[in-house]
Amino acid sequence: MPDKYPSMTALYADPVNVEGTTYGKRWKRHEWIQLVEAQATDNPETEKTVVAIHGGGIEGGTSEIALAVAGYDPATFAQAGDGRGFHDFWIFEGLLKSGNNDLHVTSTNYDDPIALELVRNARRCISLHGFSDSDAGGSNQIGGRDAELKSIVLEELTAAGIPALLATNPGLDGSDPANICNKTAGGQGVQLEMGPSFRASLFAPGCNTRELRKTNTNAEFSKLVAALRKALSRVE
């Protein structure tokens, strides 16, 4: 089914969509500092960003995963204590009781200026998505143009016992340069597609709703987040 809106610009221009009621936006860009002469930066982890452009009620679970992978508890925003740094993030969330799919704008048409700025200032990007169980075929699929990070994400997910494979379907492989995940400084990123059954398994039974997910993550959620954070920590 085609998107209702051809771009985020069009979505924001429709008066029926009201920020804080229809949709929400959350983002963080970390301060870049340099305290030591001849050192490129004192916090290179900020050159990585995590995005969930279809969060909230659009592709459930991606908001919570994005926050955690960036290094923040999805409920309290407490910082992760694993020593793997903190990353910029962008999250767009559908807040409707139903019909959130109307707020889906495909990755190649995603022109929100803040999201684009965050990705363009990053060397690495992981974009989190949901797709159907039929497309998933029992595995999460890893796409995008960042061959190095794709390979590492696959390695870490596999080591964690999380089913995953490299996407080959042209509609899911994230290879289009116009895909927001590929608009980094190096023109490459990673897109992780996860089926609804897998995403539901990351939260306590009966808690897979926008209101309850953030306070009801489980061990499977932690395993996924740890794998993705480790993958990001392995690249510059």
Relevant terms:
17% strand, globular, 236 residues, seven-stranded mixed beta sheet, 25% helix, alpha/beta, single chain
Order of the strands making up the biggest sheet: 1-3-2-4-7-5-6
Largest sheet: 7 strands, mixed
Low-confidence stretches: none
Overall strand count: 7
Mean of pLDDT: 94
Strand content: 15-25%
* End-to-end C-alpha gap: 38 Å
Number of helices: 7
Radius of gyration in whole Å, from Cα? 17 Å
Class of secondary structure makeup: alpha/beta
Any idea what the shape is? globular
What is the ordering of alpha helices and beta strands?
HEEHEHEHEHEEHH
Q: Into which percent range does the helicity of residues fall?
A: 25-40%
Word description of this protein:
The protein has a seven-stranded mixed sheet, sandwiched between helices. β2, α2 and β3 (88-94) form a beta-alpha-beta unit. The chain is 25% helix and 17% strand. It is α/β, with parallel strands linked by helices. α5 (147-159) packs antiparallel against α7 (219-233). The mean pLDDT is 94.
